[in-house]
Amino acid sequence: MLKLINGRNWYAACTFRRGIVISSEKFCLKAEASSEEDSSGADNPYFADFQKFHIEASPAQKLVLSIGSAITTLLNPGRPDALGVFGETSGHSALQKMHEKMMASSDGQLILTDKPRINSSTVDLNWLKKLPPNTLGRTYIKFLEENNVTPDSRTPVQFVDDIELAFVMQRYREIHDLVHTVLGMPTNMLGEVAVKWVEGIQTGLPMCVSGAIFGPLRLKPKQRQRYLNSYLPWALSTAANAEFVLNIYFEKRWEQPMGELLKELKIEPFVET
Amino acid sequence: MASLIRRTLLLRTFCRAKRFTCHSQYVHQESAGAERMSNSSKESNETHFGFQTVKESEKADKVYEVFEEVAQSYDKMNDAMSFGIHRLWKDIFVDRLAPSKPCKILDVAGGTGDIAFRIAKYLRNSDGGGITVCDINQAMLDVGRKRASELGFSGMEWLQGNAECLSSIADNTYDSYTIAFGIRNVTHIDKALKEAYRVLKPGGQFMCLEFSQVQNENLRWLYDQYSFQAIPVMGQLIAGQWKAYQYLVESIRQFPNQEEFAGMIERAGFAFVRHENLTFGVVAIHCGHKL
């Protein structure tokens, strides 16, 4: 599959799909070079899902989608797909930076090579339940049960054209609950906003940053006091000091005790003042 | 003798309706589009699903999935995509149908009930009796049934069935058969037309409202741009479904144009087939009679 590098190549890909091939020498050479070096073919573990869900959209369409989905999310927070569309269409440069950060770390590189997925068929939830308390796996299961969420509720990535960046986006979505777990934040408004701050500062995704800025507007006065006094300062310092969340290979750390894990990731447990 | 009288009466009514385009010259003319479609499907058992090629056996399931996904936001999307004009199209369609009591009307692919409710209102029928709504998709019927109970149409019948094979309906049952924005989703349009002919009483009327070909080339370009650029985006924003609405606009391009479709209706046995364009040909009303 040809790597789509910029907007013009969207047109070439569309016409190619319809049976008309339009190409220039420059495009052919670039396509040849990229097909040699990357693994965007069928041997890429993420390839099947990517192919299934990917939608070609022109830059103009992506612009309308990002504005429209931002408005939809603000007006109707019960539309998780709108938030996902906003994230995908507005996050291109942030995704590139996230990819670079992952390539700069050994664990991150491993994640990009293995392309692990987190859902109920790849993660053995029964085995995690049997782990000793205070391990990452056991704490994660406890989090899922207490907050009534499943690892299967993440919408697939549709509007990111590059398969590697699409995987970064998908990975970001799938580890969201694990980020909640290691930060010790519940899924109420306060916890979500704190996680959004950490994710927003570390990833730079406009979706996280705007969630972090607009989310607190919905807080009631008492909650706002707690947010300003405890949650916000803690979230900001954690974001600055902690390891980049996408570089954490959670699947290899299920049995690690939480205390040791938090020390390694430089995360201070939250204490409400 | 009786059929001769029927023919004469219908011819007189037809002549008064000058707005329609007559298709009697197409009775013996093979239309290229329909022939192409039937030839390719005979050879490879494949058909089109929008711009994709799929096995005939799979198309019905794929269409079912599309409508199951869009059922909840179907009406909202119709308003958004057509800027509310679909309501006018449907009003004109029921006006052309001009049902009169007593009558038995079958509305096929009637899903959320738009046509059925309009017919009931036209008949000043307080409870919708005599109208049967048939759809292959249970999710669409559920939405329609809910709307009917909100509007007080308790006498309507809701039937799940396939337009290609209305096995639960006997021959010569209905006075009118209507199908609005449904026939282009059927895998074998000729079968649906033959079934329509079968279930209608002699003298019965077949009416179809469907997207068709825009006659003017410049307007057609504008319409294509709107369809392919804007509609999937609207589908994603309003209904969270890009691919379903991409299928919808592609299926419009795959459907035969006004004349080809009229030829198919005639080959199913209908007489006095005529069509009327609405909105420059964006939609067309086709009408035929069983003698």
UniProtKB/TrEMBL annotation, chain B:
It catalyses: a 2-methoxy-6-(all-trans-polyprenyl)benzene-1,4-diol + S-adenosyl-L-methionine = a 5-methoxy-2-methyl-3-(all-trans-polyprenyl)benzene-1,4-diol + S-adenosyl-L-homocysteine + H(+). One of its GO terms (biological process) is methylation. One of its GO terms (molecular function) is 2-methoxy-6-polyprenyl-1,4-benzoquinol methyltransferase activity. It comes from the Eukaryota. Its EC number is 2.1.1.201. Pathway: Cofactor biosynthesis; ubiquinone biosynthesis. It is a peripheral membrane protein. S-adenosyl-L-methionine binds at T112, D135, N162, A163. It is found in: Mitochondrion inner membrane. The keyword S-adenosyl-L-methionine applies. It is an enzyme of class 2 (transferase). Keywords: Membrane, Methyltransferase, Mitochondrion, Mitochondrion inner membrane, S-adenosyl-L-methionine, Transferase, Ubiquinone biosynthesis. One of its GO terms (cellular component) is extrinsic component of mitochondrial inner membrane. Belongs to the class I-like SAM-binding methyltransferase superfamily. MenG/UbiE family. Methyltransferase required for the conversion of 2-polyprenyl-6-methoxy-1,4-benzoquinol (DDMQH2) to 2-polyprenyl-3-methyl-6-methoxy-1,4-benzoquinol (DMQH2). HAMAP family: MenG_UbiE_methyltr. Component of a multi-subunit COQ enzyme complex, composed of at least COQ3, COQ4, COQ5, COQ6, COQ7 and COQ9. Interacts with PYURF; the interaction is direct, stabilizes COQ5 protein and associates PYURF with COQ enzyme complex. This is 2-methoxy-6-polyprenyl-1,4-benzoquinol methylase, mitochondrial. It comes from Cloeon dipterum.
